[in-house]
Amino acid sequence: MEQPAARILNLLCLAGKLPARKVAEHLGITPAEALRQLHGLEVRAAVSQMNGFWFIRPREARLTPAEMDRVLDVIPEKTPGVTVTEIALTLGYSLTQVERAISRLTHAGRVMKSGYGPATRWVKLRGWVSHGFIP
Asked: For 50-90, how does the pLDDT look when each residue is reduced to its tens digit (9 = 90+)?
């Protein structure tokens, strides 16, 4: 039997974009389960949500695990940390790619914020080795 996440990805590939309730209806699962699966896919950078509709995230915006490791290598363990813009300029990635990478690294417990606002800086959590990022 196909996994719920794979079924959701297949459905979104065919439909383009759908609200979570429609995903649940098509797959015969509860809306809560559909949302849980969709949020899991969002953390893994497979889908995005805009205005209540879920859709497959464009491939060019995703970073590979090796590229995620490069982002993690740029982030220091001590404050003041680095901004998203500094990471993007250093590695030649788009701001969107770096923001999504930081989001995934934050959800995985690898980095944390140092400050707030437009000049938010990011630092690596101590104790993590920067090889083999797997969210």
From this structure: 888 998 877 656 677 888 889 999 999 887 899 988 998 89
How is domain 61-124 classified at the CATH fold level?
A: Arc Repressor Mutant, subunit A (1.10.10)
Domain ranges of the chain: 4-57, 61-124
- Looking at CATH, the fold of the domain delimited by 4-57 is given as Arc Repressor Mutant, subunit A (1.10.10)
CB distance 122 to 111 below 8 Å: yes
Task: Write a three-state SS string for 9-37.
Answer: HHHHHHHCEECHHHHHHHHCCCHHHHHHH
The model's pLDDT over 6-43, given as tens digits with 9 standing for 90+, comes to 889 889 888 889 999 999 999 999 999 999 999 888 88
Q: How far apart are CA 8 and CA 14, in angstroms?
A: 10
* This prediction's pTM: 0.51
